[in-house]
Amino acid sequence: MNGSATLPRRLYLLAYDTRRQRITHRFELRYALRAAILIELLLRGHIADRDGTVLAERTGGCDDPVLRAALAEIEAAPGRSWKHWVRAGHRSVERAVSDQLSADGLITVRHRLGLRRARITVPDLQPVLQITNDVRRALREEHPDPADAALLALADAAGLPAAATTGRRARRQRIDRLAEPLGPVFPALRAVIRGMRAAASGGS
């Protein structure tokens, strides 16, 4: 996978457990993928924050269909919060991203009779290992690539093992610092995941 791969695509592969050969943390992943789309659009200058709401700024030149669809939604509904856009489309985003990866031969999707969820496998693990290395390097480097730093923060918010290291408190402080330049996306993602977990557990 080359450097032009989008954050949603990289995050999806990062969620692949190479030992169990399956996608993990799918509940959190759906929201993290939506946040990844927002961050990608933010880094490319397509959207901006205006007093806690998302504003479409530059709608041309968005070549990725998943990003382009999200950008069109944001343009059509200005003034919505970041939490709104993290939640919006979360049920379909995993399928949209997996379809892209499948079309490029990076994953294999097998639909099983009687089961709603398809089985996902990665025939070549090298892209997964490379993305994992990118994330862990971002945790160590003083000035990591912005996309790698964002990927690290997304993985952490979704609870993916690739973001886990020793020294939990120092890691949390480091990730929070890396997420600061990306504005309100990560607070929104964490709030949505926290709220969904509470709802799933009956508010306990």
Number of helical elements: 9
User: What's the CATH H-level superfamily name?
Assistant: yeast vps74-n-term truncation variant domain like
The appropriate CATH architecture is: Orthogonal Bundle
H/E element order: HEEHEEHHHEEHHHH
Q: How much helicity do the residues have?
A: 55-70%
In the predicted model, the low-confidence regions spanning at least 5 consecutive residues are none
CATH topology tier name: yeast vps74-n-term truncation variant fold
Strand order of the largest sheet: 1-2
Structural class: mainly alpha
Number of strands: 6
Cα(first) to Cα(last) distance is 42 Å
In short:
The chain contains nine helices and six strands; from the N terminus they run H-E-E-H-E-E-H-H-H-E-E-H-H-H-H. It is mainly alpha-helical. Strand 1 (16-17) and strand 2 form a beta hairpin.
Keywords, separated by commas or semicolons:
204 residues, mainly alpha, yeast vps74-n-term truncation variant fold, two-stranded antiparallel ribbon, globular
Q: Please, could you describe this protein's structure?
A:
- A hairpin with an 8-residue loop joins strand 5 (108-110) and strand 6.
- The chain has 204 residues and is mainly alpha-helical.
- Helix content is 56%, strand content 9%.
- It has a single domain, classed as yeast vps74-n-term truncation variant domain like (yeast vps74-n-term truncation variant fold), CATH 1.10.3630.
- The mean pLDDT is 90.
- The termini are far apart.
- It has helices spanning 7-14, 26-43, 65-76, 82-87, 90-103, 126-140, 146-158, 168-179, 185-200, and strands at residues 16-17, 22-23, 47-50, 53-56, 108-110, 119-121.
- The radius of gyration is 16 Å and the shape is globular.
